[in-house]
Amino acid sequence: MDKNRVRFYNLMKLLERKTDIDNEFTFDDIKKRLAAGEEGFSYSKNTFLKDISVLEHVGFDVIENASDGKATTYSHQERLFELHELRLLVDAVTASRFLNKQETKKIIDKLKNLTSENEAKKLHNGIIPDTAIKSESNRIHFSIDQIHQAIAEKKLLTFQYGRYNFNKKFELSHDGKEYAVKPLAVIWSNDYYYLITRSLPDDQLRHFRVDRMRKVKRTEEKFQDERFNVDEYLSTVFNMFAGEPDYVKIKFKKGLLNVVLDRFGLKADIQQVDEENFILTTKAAISDGLITWILTWGKDAQVISPQSVIDKVQEQIFEMSKLYRMNLQQ
Fold this sequence. Notes:
By secondary structure, this protein is an alpha+beta fold. The protein has four domains: about 5-75, Winged helix-like DNA-binding domain superfamily/Winged helix DNA-binding domain (Arc Repressor Mutant, subunit A, Orthogonal Bundle), CATH 1.10.10; about 85-135; about 140-230; about 235-325, Alpha-Beta Plaits. The protein has helices spanning about 5-20, 25-35, 45-55, 85-95, 100-110, 115-120, 140-155, 230-235, 255-265, 290-295, 305-330, and strands spanning about 25, 65, 75, 155-165, 170, 180-190, 190-200, 205-210, 215-220, 245-255, 270, 275-285, 300-305.
């Protein structure tokens, strides 16, 4: 193997992994590190400067820091990701439910290789993961791959679906019946992947949690492309419950203003009623998820319209009151 090419590669990796804005090397430092373990290593300053020139020519930036009375230092400071960007990625990976501990460590180690070793040490103390919710399986990776390919190729998807029972054993729904769907989009919500579909044969919008899907298969049967605005659709959905969209008016106490703005954004249609209340008008999927969300705020949220949603809220409150009256009698 050409020693010059090996030396050039080692120089690039040395600058990439060992130097940054806070860690710079002189030519003597670099020569000593490159010569480690190699007998008869020869590297002139002129050859070194030519190597630096080539690195810069191919887009590998090398910073030269010349000081009066001191040896010039060299460092590579440009990175694909800034340290704060890597921190965001590391935290996201650490917090992810669907990655097990081994996969989490493997990905974080790869992310650390995108910066210098000294900068990578600063990524070590991130957020503290809740190990109780970490996945024990890597099945989801295959499922997501199949799903994304099916969406890209507009092909039908089949799978089994299920849930855990009281014994913490996974049970397939409908005796392992195979679902067939048109996959429209994969979204990330409440720390889980969800697949948004049109189910067959009824063509109804339905959501499925990807970690609960089994034997996911991309078929060869194509389906007709349809325009589906994911952002617009998700703005109507609560707790990932599908439902028919309708306009809803809800009166809130002013203390929930920021909660509403967090959920609906600064473009939310809100009208101040008085010093203590405001009304939100929004298009929402009428579902159990919406009713649960409204009831979350207790007496600080009141549905104004439509009547069908008022009825659903009243029905839920009535059922809850029966439950608690029963407990009180006992």
